[in-house]
Design a protein that fits this description.
single chain, alpha/beta, 12-stranded mixed beta sheet, globular, binds S-adenosylmethionine
Length: about 350
């Protein structure tokens, strides 16, 4: 049974394993101003033609349907790089108006590489954004430039400061840890967070890189990450809900860290999220092999009920979990930047 219909008219999207959809990740562009080596090739990315990218009105319509009619309570805007899309504060303004049927505002967040946040943090806050996650994989300028293929560390650090100053809290810094690249900076990131009251979130490297260079030996597991920090700044685990990060706080009270163990300890059993790509493909998992086209029916006049039916059908087919590391794992045809991380 994929849909639970309530008298209020809300249809909860429930999959065949009993998981209920609460979180919608919306990619608003596949373009990016960085070329992170584990995400995109240096050149030759094929961009989605502009007329195939959802308009702000189309994004708002889908978001409204999910929030008002299908049980979603949190929306994260992502990309590509969402801050390269023109007039982003306008879209944030439209989405920040959305409320759940019982009148609660949604948790509206943005995932960004931070390079444009210095200028944009305050306008985004003013438009109604609640919080940001900034992706940052090295605190060393040369290494940062090698990983992102852009010499932009000072801009990103200024962007993080601007986000904190604007009150886009809690600011989380997302670090993809790749063996041989940046595992020697795990403690540096912990200290960066302790000094600024920012939460670092360490992410295990996943097989979603555009050039297919992922291998299991490049994954630095959650246990190793926690042990490295605990040896210097003792940690204790914080009980947590359905969010994927396992959370740890410093025993001296100086804040907390998160670790997202997508590969070594998949959290698929608690997954409450679905995704919409920039061109309007609906996906129930980062690693899903199938996606469901929203854009064509929407542009051909589909009603909200018909779009809800597509979502319900897709969620009904959601699998138990991804198969990374298993013999039958198949890489998805889109990379992270094309899905929206
Ligand atoms: N440009 C935005 C940003 O930098 O946050 C949003 C999109 S980016 C694709 C989203 C996140 O995916 C980033 O934190 C990035 O580091 C992460 N990511 C990309 N490829 C990844 C991979 N192969 N494994 C793990 N995380 C990855």
């Amino acid at each position: 049974m994929a849909v639970v219909q309530f008298p209020s008219g809300v249809r909860l999207l429930t999959d065949s394993f009993g998981r209920v959809v609460r979180d919608l990740r919306i990619s608003i562009t596949d373009r990016c101003n960085f070329r992170c080596v584990y995400c995109m090739p240096a050149d030759g990315m094929k961009w989605v033609p502009r007329d195939e990218i959802l308009t702000f009105e189309e994004i708002e319509r889908i978001a409204r349907l999910f929030v008002e009619g299908l049980g979603v309570e949190s929306i994260r805007l992502t990309g590509g790089e969402p801050t390269v899309r023109a007039d982003l504060p306008k879209l944030v303004g439209l989405l920040s108006e959305l409320c759940t049927p019982d009148g609660r505002p949604i948790d509206l967040a943005l995932t960004t590489n931070g390079a444009k946040l210095g200028r944009m943090a305050q306008p985004l806050k003013d438009a109604g954004l609640r919080r940001v996650n900034v992706s940052l994989d090295s605190l060393n300028r040369e290494r940062f430039a090698e990983i992102t293929r852009r010499d932009a560390l000072p801009e990103v650090l200024a962007g993080i400061d601007a986000a904190v100053a604007a009150g886009l809290a809690p600011v989380k810094v997302k670090v993809v840890v790749v063996r041989g690249w940046n595992e020697d900076e795990i403690v540096d990131f912990a200290e960066f967070g302790r000094e600024r009251a920012i939460q670092p979130r360490f992410i295990e490297f996943m097989p979603l890189d555009a050039d297919g260079s992922w291998s299991m030996d490049k994954v630095v597991g959650a246990d190793e990450i926690v042990a490295a920090i605990d040896a210097v700044h003792p940690l204790e685990e914080v009980p947590h809900g359905p969010e994927p990060a396992s959370r740890w706080r410093y025993r001296d009270g100086a804040g907390e860290i998160g670790v997202i163990p997508s590969v070594t300890k998949p959290f698929c059993g608690d997954c409450d999220r679905v995704r919409l790509t920039a061109e309007g493909a609906f996906m129930t998992c980062l690693f899903a092999q199938d996606d469901f086209d929203f854009r064509t029916p929407m542009r051909n006049g589909a009603t909200d009920a018909e779009l809800g039916d597509i979502a319900a059908r897709a969620v009904g087919l959601k699998w138990a979990g991804h198969r990374i590391g298993k013999i039958d794992f198949v890489r998805p045809r889109r990379s992270m930047s094309q899905i929206g991380g």
